[in-house]
Design brief:
With about 170 residues, this protein is an alpha+beta fold. The protein has 2 domains: about 80 residues, Rossmann fold; about 80 residues, no CATH class. It is built from 4 helices and 6 strands. The strands form 2 sheets. The protein has a 4-stranded antiparallel beta sheet, covered by helices on one side. The protein has a two-stranded antiparallel ribbon with strand order 1-4. Helix 2 packs across helix 3, helix 2 packs parallel to helix 4 and helix 3 packs across helix 4. It starts with a strand and ends in a 13-residue tail after the last helix. The structure holds adenosine-5'-triphosphate (ATP) and magnesium ion. The site of adenosine-5'-triphosphate (ATP) has 10 residues, from helix 1.
Amino acid sequence: MRCAGGGRPWTPRHERAAAVTIDNLGMRFAAADAAHDVFSGVNLTIQPGEFFVIVGPSGCGKTTLLRIVQGLIQPTSGRVLVGDVPITGPGTDRGFVFQQDSLYPWRTVAANVVFGLELQGAAPETARARARQLIELVGLAGYELHYRTSCRAACASASIWRAPWRSSRRSC
Ligand SMILES: Nc1ncnc2c1ncn2[C@@H]1O[C@H](COP(=O)(O)OP(=O)(O)OP(=O)(O)O)[C@@H](O)[C@H]1O
Ligand SMILES: [Mg+2]
């Protein structure tokens, strides 16, 4: 598994807190015959605003790593910090796009994207305005009323959790 980041000039660590810190992370799944170590000793730091890529062959643990960062599963060893707070479960400070798009097929693109803010009780006009920005960002403007699901719609839907009008920490 290889990890690479970029997008902003490097800044010495002491000058600003990392958005995400992965500290000596390991994951082992129990199997019927023997335990399966997916990865161990993974260390990396993602800076605020950094665009970070994890690549590797199928089965090397990319999704497992992201599921740990999202708080959906607990690692066998090590820890993940968002800012300086250890992750103990899912939170609205992180968005997650599943490998399957995980959208509601009976909702339009716009209704899927706005769903997260509906759950948080945002004012409808605020939610719609934020959804419009994200739909534009992922290049789906003009497709708001379509029922087709797509990875891009899933990205917009996951991003809306990190609404700028909330004061909560944002991970990246
Ligand atoms: N819940 C689980 N129980 C047992 N083994 C699991 C579980 N989830 C994942 N694995 C195993 O962990 C390994 C890593 O899986 P993971 O889905 O993280 O790989 P990946 O790098 O995302 O692969 P792909 O590129 O195909 O999406 C695989 O061998 C997989 O079978
Ligand atoms: Mg995967």
